[in-house]
Amino acid sequence: MTTQIKPNKKEVTRERNQKLILNAAEQLFSQLGYEGASMSMIATAAQVPKANILYYFKSKDGLYEAVIDRIIAHWNLGLDNVTADDDPATVLYNYIKSKVILAINEPLQSRLFASEILRGAPYLQNYFRTNTRP
């Protein structure tokens, strides 16, 4: 007999709240920029108390970093199955193709990423320094 594990109510609530917050933050950061989107605006859009944002993400910077991390993780899903034996030209072609499709299907993510670049990539500089190999 198999025992089915019920999800912890706190965990379900946490995951739901974080997703609501990240979705609202992605939209507002994309539309208004980092400086234009306030924590209060994000809380209102996510329909959660502002304190929840600070509880889960500690600061506006922490929230912004989580949004960018989520975008990068989504964009990099296509690289999960790449091996050292794969043809580099094919890998690059497939990667660029997937990015174009994502840009069409997820325009807010592309806009936010472009905005980060135009701001001088303050978060991405640190991200790539700590998450990529030379």
UniProtKB/TrEMBL annotation:
InterPro entries with a match to the protein in the record: Homeodomain-like_sf, HTH-type_TetR-like_transc_reg, HTH_TetR, Tet_transcr_reg_TetR-rel_C_sf, Tscrpt_reg_YcdC_C
Location of the HTH tetR-type domain: 15-75
Pfam families, per database record: TetR_C_3 (PF08362), TetR_N (PF00440)
Keywords: DNA-binding
SUPFAM superfamilies: Homeodomain-like, Tetracyclin repressor-like, C-terminal domain
PROSITE patterns: HTH_TETR_2
GO terms assigned for molecular function: DNA-binding transcription factor activity; transcription cis-regulatory region binding
GO BP term (any one): negative regulation of DNA-templated transcription
Chain ranges passing through the membrane: none
UniProt keyword annotation of DNA-binding present: yes
Gene3D superfamilies, A to Z: Homeodomain-like, Tetracycline Repressor, domain 2
Listed name of the protein: HTH tetR-type domain-containing protein
Native species: marine sediment metagenome
